[in-house]
Design a protein that fits this description.
Elements lengths: L10 E7 L6 H15 L4 E7 L6 H11 L3 E6 L5 H11 L4 E4 L10 H10 L4 E9 L4 H18 L7 E8 H8 L8 H7 L4 E8 L11 H15 L2 H31 L6 H34 L6 E5 L9
Parallel strand pairs: 1-2, 1-4, 2-3, 5-7
Antiparallel strand pairs: 3-8, 4-6, 5-6
This protein binds uridine-5'-diphosphate and magnesium ion.
The site of magnesium ion has 5 residues, from loops.
């Protein structure tokens, strides 16, 4: 007897989740509505629990038990959103994959528009924020600065006001999965793979419940990672700074000798000396610090540790087959 044909998964949705107990019910309801509108026969939802401590994992397990579309990956601890997305992308089977946040700041209905663009032949469709309702002025200002600085520092034409919310096809996904670096700035990596990319615009709603998991310290660490993992410009700037300081030093030495020869004055200039020593000492330390950041990243790459560890995987035993 022939077994029923296995349907290939048409769409995977990858959702990183860290302490989102309050957001999950609304997310589930909204996703159900949108997925019924896609008219796709085989969809999987991959929730990656990034070491939540508020019981999100239990809620996700209950969801997976009721809905065979849902897969749950549970990390052994918090590894960060970038690792959670990576895990979901490595696990998914879909011909197309969407990455979205759990807090409904990435509106699920946009998936329909993304699918439309993807069908028109685009390999990657990213969502670009037109505005950010209800976010603090500081968050808006830091996000504004983040995108502009990254553009200037990375030198890549990274699309502004674009997060991880996007849809990509297998071709892009395979390219992304072939990049094995430890220090991951996903937005940069998604941009780096190239292919045909386009945007859909949306206004980013405020978080419906819970609180942001990106305090200033995490934003800062993401920005430093982004700048250093995609650019060696800071090293070049060090070189230029070094050259500048040395030239200044040489110029100042000539000036001092001439001054001494002309006036015979040797005691004066003590303040200048202290200022110069401090300046040069400070800039040397900054340079060492920047080099240290690169060295620590090289160290991370050499160690080659896994990017995340799984405590549990809840996946339907067999992939859905045609009834
Ligand atoms: N997130 C995660 N691990 C973390 C921090 C955040 O998986 O260490 C998830 C979080 O649950 C959410 C998404 O990443 O689904 C975006 O986080 P958040 O909404 O807090 O960021 P914001 O929108 O404030 O920038
Ligand atoms: Mg959010």
């Amino acid at each position: 007897m022939d077994s029923p044909p296995i349907l290939s998964t048409e769409l995977s949705i990858v959702i990183p989740i860290y302490n989102e107990l309050e957001s999950i019910p609304a997310l589930r309801a909204e996703l159900a509505v949108v997925l019924s509108q896609t008219r796709l026969a085989c969809v999987e939802i991959i929730c990656v629990d990034d070491g939540s401590t508020d019981g999100s994992d239990a809620l996700l397990k209950a969801w997976a038990q009721e809905d065979p579309q849902v897969h749950v990956l549970i990390f052994s601890r918090n590894f960060g959103q970038q690792a959670a997305i990576t895990a979901g992308l490595e696990h998914c089977q879909g011909e197309r994959v969407v990455i979205m946040d759990a807090d409904l700041q990435d509106p699920p209905e946009l998936i329909l528009e993304m699918l439309e663009k993807s069908r028109q032949g685009f390999d990657m469709v990213y969502a670009r924020r037109q505005n950010r309702e209800g976010e603090s002025r500081f968050k808006k200002a830091s996000a504004y600065l983040f995108y502009r600085l990254m553009r200037a520092v990375i030198g890549l034409d990274l699309p502004e006001d674009t997060g991880d919310f996007r849809l990509m096809n297998r071709r892009c996904l395979e390219a992304f999965l072939s990049m094995r670096e430890q220090n991951r700035f996903l937005r940069g990596m998604f941009h780096w793979v190239g292919f045909r990319q386009t945007e859909v615009l949306f206004s980013r709603p405020p978080r419906q419940s819970g609180y942001t998991k990106y305090p200033f310290s995490k934003m800062l660490s993401l920005s430093i990672n982004a700048a250093l993992s995609f650019s060696t410009l800071p090293l070049r700037l060090i070189l230029m700074l070094g050259c500048g300081v040395s030239l200044f030093g040489a110029g100042y030495a000539i000036y001092s000798i001439l001054w001494h020869l002309i006036t015979g004055d040797t005691v004066k200039g003590w303040t200048t000396l202290i200022v110069l020593i401090t300046l040069i000492g400070g800039s040397t330390l900054i340079c060492l610090g920047i080099i240290g950041e690169y060295v620590s990243r090289i160290y991370d790459e050499v160690k080659g540790r896994p990017q995340y560890l799984l405590r549990e995987i809840i996946a339907p035993a067999t992939r859905k087959s045609a009834e």
